[in-house]
Amino acid sequence: MQTNTTFSVIFYTRKSRSNANELNIFARITVNQKRSEISLKRCTLLREWDSNKNRARGSSYKTKVLNTYLDQVYSHLLDCHKQLLEEAKIITANAVKARYLGLDENHKTLTELMTYHNTNMVSILKYGTMKNYYTTERYLLKYLGKVSKVDDIYLKQLNYRFICDFEQFLRAYKNPKKGLVLSNNGVMKHMERFKKMVNLAVKLEWIQKNPFNQFQLKFDKFDRQFLTERELELIENTHYTNERLERVKDCFIFSCYTGLSYVDVRELTLNHITRGIDNNYWIFTKREKTNETVKIPILPKALAIIEKI
Q1: Domain boundaries, position 281
Q2: Could you tell me which residue, 278 or 224, shows the higher pLDDT?
Q3: Which of 85, 105, 125 corresponds to the end of one domain?
Q4: Are residues 25 and 123 located together in one domain of the fold?
Q5: Cβ contacts of residue 110 below 8 Å, gap of 6+?
Q6: Which of 155, 166, 213 lies closest to 188, judged by CA?
Q7: Are 234 and 240 in contact (CB under 8 A)?
Q8: In whole angstroms, how large is the CA radius of gyration of the chain?
Q9: Of all residues in the chain, what percent are helix, strand and coil, respectively (each to 5)?
């Protein structure tokens, strides 16, 4: 933390170019004799400015409002300086000005976070996963527009209430036919992706406190049903005259006997099939989702489908 810097804030005026009787008001920040200036977009009459006190003189309502505003600006600039000290940042006049104007990294917005996350993760995450993040982003933007009535918010404005309200927005979201779009687990998946983006903001030090600390993801658990031997046999013995449907059926049966997902089956080539030390055929491949290498014995019924193709 810096303790040997000098810091001051004063207000001063410049003559207006459009009106010789008016003065434009500025704030001057000085740190270690280096200055940075901010136009306050306020003006006063030449005769109403007290250059000794750097405030407007008089007791009119207009004067009181202006002086109150100047006091607020002064307090805000002091607070910006205090924040930078507490964060152990380098203190300069420009740094204080940037913090006041919301131009430093401590004032990153939610859309900036989503853009940063999606841009950097597009080469890391699979296309299907990225597509889900884009969907979550669209829901967040809809929430900001419909509920908060804004296009964007600062990350420091994220709090527990924002998260809870966004969750309820997802639960109540309806399609054009007035039907609910998301189940509980669908809502939780969007909240989970939102949480991962906020966690990234914390790691980047774009936000000091994680608003998800008190929020719990609550997924409904389901027992996945599996095919019985009889059901699988019925599918195997069903034949279609439509070649496309027959191919779909064969792919499904092949997945059942190998344990591979559709995307893994789709990527298989003859190069992935080889004889093992037991002299039987095996599949050597990598799972698309986890990138893990798997070795799978080809059972007779799965081999029959390969030979059929």
Answers
A1: 229-308
A2: 278
A3: 105
A4: no
A5: 140, 144, 152, 153, 154, 155, 158
A6: 166
A7: no
A8: 32
A9: 50, 15, 30
